[in-house]
């Protein structure tokens, strides 16, 4: 039975490549539902796991050290919010069905722009994430936050001590310098995230600069 399960879990599974971009405006009712759904830590962790690779509930239960029943509860929440979907069904030797879940959209972006700008924002982000190879923004942000929290645990006291020194002492390091250094050294994925933000910022600036004459 164990060998059969191992064989099933190592089958070729669907890819997360070429999933459509989803932009949700903050003024939309849909944004409230997304925040409520992902506000649960377990639901959010499952969503991150599925962005890494399509998985069946048993794999998620093992990864999160949870029960199958609990995993199904959170999967149902994600499905109702149109965040994930089953794309395949595997069967064990006992005929038990195991659905393979993937995100519906990758990346998912919450936009603070006006409703009129949604189409332009979607086009702009599609180009940016095309350059980045379709990396999931939500995963990178999570890595950024996690790495920042980890680095603050190990270096927080040193950072505070350095930043509290008087400028007259000639100490070159500041709180910002220490935090940036700790974040960049913690995970290569964060560097990619910062690169993406830079590209997005430059692209947005160019878009607004070109649009300004027409507004006048």
TrEMBL record:
The chain crosses the membrane at residues 128-149, 189-209. Keywords: Membrane, Transmembrane, Transmembrane helix. The keyword Glycosyltransferase does not apply. CDD domains: HTH_ARSR. It comes from the Archaea. The keyword DNA damage does not apply. Residues 113-211 form the HVO-1552 C-terminal domain. This is ArsR family transcriptional regulator. It comes from Halogeometricum borinquense.
């Amino acid at each position: 039975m164990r060998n059969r399960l191992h064989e099933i879990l190592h089958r070729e599974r669907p890819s997360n490549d070429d999933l459509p971009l989803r932009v949700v405006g903050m003024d939309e009712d849909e944004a409230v539902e997304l925040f409520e759904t992902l506000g649960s830590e377990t639901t959010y962790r499952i969503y991150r796991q599925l962005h890494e690779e399509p998985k069946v509930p048993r794999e998620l239960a093992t990864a999160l050290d949870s029960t199958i029943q609990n995993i199904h509860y959170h999967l149902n929440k994600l499905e109702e919010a149109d965040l994930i979907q089953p794309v395949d069904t595997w069967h064990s030797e006992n005929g038990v069905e195991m659905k393979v879940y993937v995100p519906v959209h990758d990346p998912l972006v919450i936009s603070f722009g006006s409703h009129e700008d949604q189409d332009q924002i979607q086009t702009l982000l599609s180009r940016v994430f095309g350059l980045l190879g379709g990396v999931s923004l939500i995963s990178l942000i999570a890595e950024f936050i996690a790495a920042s929290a980890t680095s603050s645990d190990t270096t927080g006291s040193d950072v505070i001590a350095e930043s509290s020194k008087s400028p007259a002492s000639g100490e070159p390091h500041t709180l910002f310098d220490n935090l940036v250094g700790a974040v960049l050294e913690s995970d290569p994925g964060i560097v990619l995230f910062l690169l993406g933000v830079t590209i997005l910022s430059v692209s947005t600036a160019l878009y607004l600069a070109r649009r300004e004459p027409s507004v006048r």
